[in-house]
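Friendly challenge for the regulars: who can give me the structure tokens for this chain first? No prize, just bragging rights.
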Amino acid sequence: GIYILIAVGAVMMFVGFLGCYGAIQESQCLLGTFFTCLVILFACEVAAGIWGFVNKDQIAKDVKQFYDQAFQQALMAESETNNGKAVVKTFHETLNCCGPDNVIGAITPLWRKDLCSGDSLLENFIEASNCHKKIDELFSGKLYLIGIAAIVVAVIMIFEMILSMVLCCGIRNSSVY
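First reply, four minutes later:
Bragging rights claimed.
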């Protein structure tokens, strides 16, 4: 997952460079390339959004599996700098949950206070639900928020495409001085 994010960031940086440099140099070729890259990225984002909506159950299952692996790593770790412990703490603080939906997850707040947020152990044990349930709620109940974010990104990209094409056409129709 990290490598995909790095690659996407590098592509976005390159596309942004094309747009900025093309606008500064008033180059139709660079602005046309920028527009083409935006169209391709827009199509990829729409395809990824449709794929994610169709496979939301599989994605939720993968996220739960990732959480379980991080949770097992955090249980076995002794040091505070463990990556698994940081991931688990992030899940717990974001989703307000503690542990997976098995017996180990149910008793974890009693003996691993450092993994669960909250003031007291009893509060953690009574109020915090398991993270598997919270992950399912996130993908079923909060799906509209993900959809709204995707629509906002799509609208911004459409405006970018329109403005880059207007700039490209304006450069072509301008008189050379």
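The longest helix spans residues 143-173. Helices lie at 2-25, 28-54, 56-76, 83-95, 103-111, 121-127, 131-141, 143-173. Your move, everyone else.
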